[in-house]
Design brief:
Layout lengths: L3 H20 L2 H12 L3 H4 L3 E2 L6 H6 L17 E3 L4 H13 L3 E5 L16 E5 L6 E4 L4 E5 L4 H11 L3 E2 L10 H6 L7 H4 L6 E7 L5 E2 L1 H4 L1 H7 L9 E8 L1 E2 L4 E9 L4 H11 L7 E11 L6 E11 L3 H11 L10 E4 L1 H8 L23 E9 L5 H9 L8 E8 L22 E9 L7 H14 L30 H12 L2 H12 L18 H4 L2
Parallel strand pairs: 2-4, 3-4
Antiparallel strand pairs: 1-2, 5-6, 6-10, 7-11, 8-9, 8-10, 12-14, 12-15, 13-14, 13-17, 16-18, 17-18
């Protein structure tokens, strides 16, 4: 028979061991798992950052592009991994699954709602900053780009080898290719060549099981889903193979700005009837913002008409004078340049050399330090009275740093089927709207004032934009339109936001998710959910 003293000693020992296990932090468990599960732990240990590391904060903040999510109460990852090779990513996925951590994957840090680096549940960040190679094959007009490379790095490397090849993507050079391509991606060439996703011909992905898949091994359904279905749902895309497209050696750009006193509203109204019918070699946008008036320094609203034309000004000016004479475009308004220089121009990087495109830490002037964005699609011209109502809201105190931008559709976008990729916003759209309200980081304490303002504008615009569903662009992520539950989200719950981004393509995305990640490991507030076990959902 054991003595009472022995039993008490065992109880005390068990209690001590139990207390010790709780004293070990979750990230210690995670790192221990990596040490056991990785054949390359000496190298992976050099790219792991926990709150105990002196570099943790600088790594976390390095590509937080929206300072709205830099408040002290913002959730932070237990671990950040900046992998150097795929052998660093696979054990990170395994150990995250084993220890119940969600994964956030960050390529450039531009997610409008910060979902690539924040979560309300315990999580780890895989930051692809070291996955940024760009290999250009001019002869075959293709390129492989890793997901951590920025658009600026991609453009620069293409231009290094050819000034007459390009890729249709955006104008903010610090945006990461991984997240951008995952959402479809539009830019200066999208009326000519379609979206970035329309010109991706292969990819390399790591799935929830740690398998490395290319287009052939993943299958056409999954390859379809990752090109516009949004990031963070199906795995981690490591690299993309791109079709490079021909452009002329010389392009022409212009910006013509008009204030309310110069009939800006009438010009915007007319633009709605003209822009989507212009030749597909023309990109056209209008940005509404508040500026100082020349009359006694009072505030007014300015409409800036900006275009890129794939050709020279001798061809552009007469074309615009015929199609949009009200704008009064003159040769003096135009600048001829190379396509790569147009990226600098539209990125508002004037007086910078092309090398600025390689600076991924540059704070772009296209967005304020803190901001909230929303989006819409317009299928019928907004009457002048509706535009006046919109413009009047730019006089509010909260609208000091606001840009409302209309992006003309048409061109080849009218010809590509809306089922070609998950991105469905094709024929029938005159233009897309971005509503962006910004403020300085030190004003984050008043962020709800600005967010309420942009929500009120969005509410006002409901009469003039698409309906049933009210469509939205996934890369302008907006949690206001719906979020998943923290646990398993039903198809019905996710459909609230899913149909706004993807319309009927949402159903196919759900089926792909069910087949590729049925346990829903890759998930976030607006990730595609798998079908659950109910008869109703299985029937979809």
């Amino acid at each position: 028979m054991k003595s009472p003293h022995f039993s008490m000693l065992m109880q005390l020992l068990f209690a001590a061991l139990f207390s010790l296990s709780w004293a070990i932090s979750p990230h210690d468990h995670f790192i221990h798992c990596l040490s056991l599960g990785s054949n390359d732990f000496p190298s992976i240990s050099r790219v792991i950052y926990t709150p105990n590391n002196s570099s943790y904060s600088s790594v976390l903040e390095s590509t937080k592009r929206n300072r709205r999510f830099s408040a002290p109460h913002t959730p932070k990852p237990l671990v950040i991994v900046t992998p150097l090779r795929t052998s660093h990513i696979q054990p990170t996925i395994y150990c995250s699954r084993k220890h119940g951590l969600q994964i956030r994957t960050r390529s450039g840090g531009h997610d409008f709602e910060g979902l690539s680096y924040i979560s309300e549940v315990p999580f780890a960040v895989i930051d692809l900053v070291n996955f940024r190679s760009v290999d250009v094959d001019v002869e075959n007009r293709v390129a492989w780009v890793q997901s951590g490379a920025t658009l600026g790095e991609l453009y620069y490397r293409i231009a290094e080898q050819s000034r007459t090849l390009a890729f249709p993507a955006g104008t903010c050079h610090t945006v990461g290719t991984g997240g951008y391509f995952s959402g479809g991606g539009y830019g200066l060439l999208f009326r000519k060549y379609g979206l970035a996703a329309d010109n991706i011909i292969d990819a390399q992905l790591i799935d929830a099981k740690g398998r490395i898949l290319d287009r052939k091994s993943m299958g056409e359904d999954l390859f379809w889903a990752i090109r516009g279905g949004g990031g963070g749902s199906f795995g981690i895309v490591l690299a993309w193979k791109l079709n490079l497209l021909p452009i002329p050696a010389t392009v022409t750009v212009f910006t013509v700005s008009k204030t309310l006193e110069q009939d800006a509203i009438q010009l915007v109204h007319r633009w709605q009837y003209v822009a989507h019918k212009l030749p597909d070699g023309i990109y056209s946008s209008v940005a509404l913002s508040r500026v100082n008036s020349s009359q006694n320094g009072k505030k007014t609203v300015q409409a800036s008409f900006r275009s890129l034309f794939l050709g020279d000004m001798d061809e552009l000016v007469p074309l615009m004078q015929e199609r949009f004479p009200e704008l009064g475009l003159l040769k003096e308004d135009c600048i001829e340049m190379s396509w790569i220089e147009s990226i600098v121009y539209f990125g508002r990087l004037q007086n910078q050399s092309l090398e600025i495109l390689l600076d991924r830490n540059f704070r772009t002037p296209l967005f304020n330090p803190s901001y909230k964005g929303k989006s819409d699609y317009v299928k019928e011209p907004i009457p002048e009275i509706g535009l006046r109502g919109l413009v009047s809201r730019l006089c509010a105190a909260e609208a000091r740093f606001v840009a409302i931008i209309f992006f003309a559709y048409g061109g080849i976008m009218d010809e590509i089927p809306e089922t070609a990729t998950p991105f469905p916003h094709r024929a029938g759209n005159l233009y897309k709207i971005l509503y962006n309200v910004g403020w300085q980081e030190e004003d984050n304490r008043n962020s709800q004032r600005y967010i309420s303002w942009v929500r009120s504008v969005y509410s006002y615009m409901s009469y003039f934009v698409s309906k049933s569903p009210r469509e939205a662009y996934i890369n302008y992520r907006d949690l206001d339109i719906g979020i998943n539950n923290e646990g398993n989200t039903s198809y019905g719950q996710a459909s609230i936001w899913g149909r706004k981004y993807f319309k009927n393509n949402f159903d196919r995305l759900v089926r792909v998710k069910t087949l590729t990640d049925p346990e829903n490991f890759f998930r976030h507030e607006q990730s595609i959910p798998p079908l659950m076990s109910s008869k109703k959902e299985r029937a979809l």
